[in-house]
Amino acid sequence: MAKVVDAAFTKDLPKVELHAHLTGSITPHCLHQIWTQRRLEDPNMSLQDPLEAMSRDKSWDIMTFFPLFSKYIYELCSTPASIIYSTNAVLHDFKEDGVVYLELRTTPRSSSSMSKDDYITTTLSCIDRFPDLNVMATYLILSVDRRNSPEEAIEVVDLAIRYRSRGVVGVDLCGDPSKGDVSTFKEAFHKAKLYGLKISLHFAEIPASSSLLELSTLLSFQPDRLGHVIHVPNEIKDQVEDRKLGLELCVSCNVKAKLIEGGVIDHHFVSWVKTGCPVILCTDDVGVFDSTLSNEYLLIAQAFNLSRNDLIDLCDRAVEAIFGDKHQKQRLWALINDAREKWMHTD
Question: Where is the Adenosine deaminase domain (predicted)?
Answer without folding.
Answer: 14-337
